[in-house]
Amino acid sequence: MSTLAAARYGKDNVRVYKVHRDEKTGIQTVVEMTVCVLLEGDIETSYTRADNSVIVATDSIKNTIYITAKQQPVTTPEVFGSILGSHFIEKYSHIHAAHVNIVTHRWVRMTIDGKPHPHSFVKDSPETRNVQVDVVEGKGIDINSSIKGLTVLKSTGSQFWGFLRDEFTTLKETWDRILSTDVAANWQWRPFNSVADVRANTAKFDNAWQAARNITLKVFAEDNSASVQATMYKMADQILATEPLLDTVAYELPNNHYFEIDLSWHKGTKNTGKDAEVYAPQSNPNGLIKCTVGRSSQKAKL
Ligand SMILES: O=c1[nH]c(=O)c2[nH]c(=O)[nH]c2[nH]1
């Protein structure tokens, strides 16, 4: 005999676009999101006994996402996700948890002849602003906010030396290298006890996203990096310092390698060390460096 150990279900990849038209100024503002909502609760019999009476159809879940987007502000995604998730556990007595994931795509207002355009936007990068909102009945709301797909490169100001050397080591030490990564950063908020608690902190969500983005870029640019590890820790440390409601900040950074090419075979061409100008960008393999930084009062799980 088997038993259902865990189950959740819902609608994924619900694409939603919302426009706000300011009638007075004629300025329009747009938001494009991809939403996933997964539900948990007393739904076991739908799996074990073909009992569909406990199923809120995934089609209805999709409809609810559209209606909530129409009736409520979709910014900030943290507040929208909390309202949406709470709806399911309040509306259906047998649903006890809702897991909402929102990916907000990047539409940046165009500047035309030096002026912000009222209704035209450009997608300048695949970067997204994301939230994972977990609403659990009786336990409150957990929110994790993140940035993904922010690709950066610096052509100097990065070193890597002093690392462990043994019979497996071939990498040369360097005091000047290219550093490039696709930033994935996330910050975990302290638990919220209700939608009202989330709403009361609305302004902090945009501020934290802006701070995380600015700090990531500034530290990346200005730090004379000893390693990806040391630089990412500085970023996380600074973000934690800006917002007391954050419990942890985490980064996942691939090290997108650029290899020097020895061109000495062609008429003695110098292209290594201080003469390196033409490099070969690598797709794989790549380093992948992760960390989660908490406050010193929290015990580290290493
Ligand atoms: O910043 C780095 N961290 C590493 O752990 C590492 N390992 C490596 O080969 N190059 C680098 N660079």
TrEMBL record:
Q: Which residues form the signal peptide?
A: none
Cited Pfam families: Uricase
Q: Please list the GO biological process terms of this entry.
A: purine nucleobase catabolic process; urate catabolic process
This protein's source sits in the domain of life called: Eukaryota
User: Matching Gene3D superfamilies, A to Z?
Assistant: Urate Oxidase
Just give the chief location class: other
- Report the InterPro entries cross-referenced here: Uricase, Uricase_CS
| Protein EC | 1.7.3.3
Annotated urate binding lies at T58, D59, F160, R177, V228, Q229, N255
Entry's localization field:
Peroxisome
List, alphabetically, the GO terms of the cellular component aspect. peroxisome
Which GO molecular function entries does the Swiss-Prot or TrEMBL record give? Answer: urate oxidase activity
Spell out the catalytic residues. K11 (charge relay system), T58 (charge relay system), H257 (charge relay system)
Q: Which reaction does it catalyse?
A: urate + O2 + H2O = 5-hydroxyisourate + H2O2
Keywords attached to this Swiss-Prot or TrEMBL record, sorted alphabetically, are:
Oxidoreductase, Peroxisome, Purine metabolism
* Pathway(s) this gene product operates in, as recorded in its UniProt entry: Purine metabolism; urate degradation; (S)-allantoin from urate: step 1/3
Family note: Belongs to the uricase family.
Relate the protein's function as given in its record. Answer: Catalyzes the oxidation of uric acid to 5-hydroxyisourate, which is further processed to form (S)-allantoin.
User: What is the name listed in the Swiss-Prot or TrEMBL entry for this protein?
Assistant: Uricase
Taxonomic source organism: Penicillium chermesinum
